[in-house]
Design goal:
Blueprint lengths: L2 H51 L2 H8 L4 E2 L2 E2 L1 H14 L4 E5 L5 E5 L13 H9 L6 E3 L7 E11 L2 E9 L3 H56 L16 H38 L1 H16 L6 H32 L8 E3 L1 H19 L2 E5 L7 E3 L1 H17 L6 E8 L3 E8 L20 H4 L9 H10 L5 E6 L3 E9 L4
Parallel strand pairs: 9-11
Antiparallel strand pairs: 1-2, 3-4, 3-7, 5-6, 6-7, 8-10, 11-12, 12-14, 13-14
Helix pairs in contact: 1-5, 6-8, 7-8, 8-12, 9-10, 10-12
Length: 496
């Protein structure tokens, strides 16, 4: 199966999943709405019926007051109540209770009463609120259910004799009401479900259209990136759908492009290193090989002076070879960012003094004056001591190589606001103007400088530039032919 087919099927699957999700959610909302509406309607009808019929029990007592003889109910009075209530409203049920809720007598269809007493707490609450709140009480005919009721106390000579307890929704009423209620629920549910399904379809399609519109844009950008357009990015906008996804993708794409560039750079460095090693090491190796071969071929014809001369040439060749290999690997590590500066506070003036002392003898041999002009008030700088020492050594080496006898090399420090400037200048032959932009490239040696020192590897200034780059510093160069060259760079003060 091709990738495009999988993508299309994945898109269709997502479409139906989203549609089904919206449909289920909206159907669920519709069902919840029906349930809440039914519950609210049922509570409303019960409360309305109870409030409208709340005075019934009290009216019964006023019209036909039940009487007690020797603590027993007057049966004749009860018959009057029964005939009156059945004539007025045959759907209600009337119960005569003692003060503890025991059923003394009742008027109910078919005489089907299961319970012998009812709870008096709901009755007390009803009398206290005067029927203004919906209160459910026991249904003597159905112990598992509760019904709305009306109640009133029977008081004789200031003493509570019992209660008249009227169930307002009797069994016949409940049978008819239940049938009507089922029809109402069916009608309401059918209409609501139909409306819900239509709403789910409309809302789902509209929502999916908006969602898939952004998804289509994202997919198009991803495909473009996959096909080689490494600059393809998703447009981001605050509050937009999938904005977090777009930001994450863009960051991932930037990382991938960065890694690709790093890999390309590393590959180029590897190829360049291999090429440089094979090319630049060939000359000293050929020289060493040639003189060793000559010594072996003419071992009986060479006098001691010639032998020493050849051995010195071989030794110089091996030294140059050793130095070139070391600088090649040092520069390669710097370019591949395998060296991380270990910054620490130190006094730059002390480091300069130490480096200058190491070069005094070498400078005297060449007839060059080397001196330093530094301030003792310079604060601590923050850098890698060993790497900065390497920078100073390379700059002084470079100055010694291209400063003729009688010349001068000067190392100076200048205090700036946030940094200290270190300057290494010489009175050498200078650098041609057209060579200045390339002076920090590896193996670059200006034509007029080439003959001054055949031991130059051409890597010293490239190493200087890379070391300063990993210190977030730059090196500046000024030069004039036959007047000299000056290199300068800045290091930040240590922040305490």
């Amino acid at each position: 199966m091709s990738t495009s087919n999988r993508s299309e099927k994945g898109g269709i699957s997502l479409f139906w999943k989203l549609s089904a999700t919206f449909l289920v959610l909206l159907v669920g909302v519709g069902l919840a709405h029906i349930k809440l509406s039914v519950s609210a309607a049922e509570n409303y009808f019960q409360e309305r019926n109870q409030r409208l019929n709340a005075p019934i029990a009290e009216s019964i007592i006023k019209e036909v007051k039940p009487t007690f003889k020797d603590g027993k109910v007057d049966e004749q009075a009860m018959d009057v109540i029964m005939h009156s209530m059945m004539a007025i409203n045959p759907s209600i049920e009337v119960y005569l209770l003692d003060p503890n809720g025991k059923i003394l007598n009742y008027v109910a269809p078919y005489k089907k009463v299961v319970m012998t007493d009812v709870r008096t707490e709901p009755i007390a609450d009803f009398i206290r609120t005067k029927g203004k709140q919906c209160i459910l009480g026991d249904d003597p005919r159905n112990p598992s259910t509760e019904q709305i009721f009306s109640a009133a106390p029977i008081i004789e000579n200031g003493t509570l004799q019992g209660y008249v307890y009227v169930v307002l929704a009797g069994e016949q009423y409940q049978s008819v009401a239940s049938s009507l209620w089922n029809d109402y629920i069916t009608t309401l549910g059918g209409r609501t479900m139909l409306i819900t399904l239509i709403a789910a379809l409309i809302v789902g399609l509209v929502a999916i259209w908006f969602i898939t519109r952004n998804l289509r844009n994202i997919i198009a950008v991803v495909k473009s990136f996959r096909n080689g357009d490494l600059e393809a990015r998703i447009e981001t906008k605050s509050g937009r759908e999938f904005n977090n996804l777009a930001v994450a993708y863009n960051e991932m794409a930037d990382t991938i492009v960065g890694n690709i560039e790093n890999l390309k750079s590393m590959e180029n460095l590897r190829r360049e290193l291999v090429g440089n090693v094979s090319h630049d090491l060939r000359t000293p190796l050929a020289v060493i090989h040639g003189y060793v071969e000559t010594m072996m071929m003419k071992k009986d014809d060479l006098n001691q002076e010639e032998r020493d001369k050849y051995l010195q040439i071989v030794l110089d060749g091996t030294e140059k070879l050793k130095k070139m290999v070391g600088e090649l690997f040092e520069l390669s590590k710097l370019e591949s960012k395998q060296i991380t500066p270990k910054k620490e506070p130190f006094f730059i003036n002390e480091l300069i003094q130490d480096v200058v002392q190491k070069y005094l003898i070498l400078a005297r041999r060449k007839g060059v004056l080397i001196q330093s002009v530094i301030s003792n008030n310079i604060k601590l700088v923050n850098a890698d001591v060993a790497l900065i020492e390497r920078v100073l050594q390379n700059l002084i080496d470079n100055a010694l190589k291209f400063t003729p006898e009688g010349g001068t090399i000067m190392i100076k420090t200048n205090e700036l606001d946030d940094d200290v400037e270190i300057q290494v200048s010489d009175t050498g032959v200078g650098i041609p103007e057209d060579q200045v932009p390339f002076i920090f490239d590896r193996y670059h040696i200006g034509d007029k400088r080439l003959g001054l020192d055949n031991k130059n590897t051409g890597l010293g200034l490239a190493i200087v530039k890379k070391i300063l780059e990993i210190h977030d510093a730059t090196i500046q160069l000024t030069s004039r032919i036959n007047q000299g060259t000056s290199f300068s760079f800045q290091l930040p003060y240590h922040q305490q």
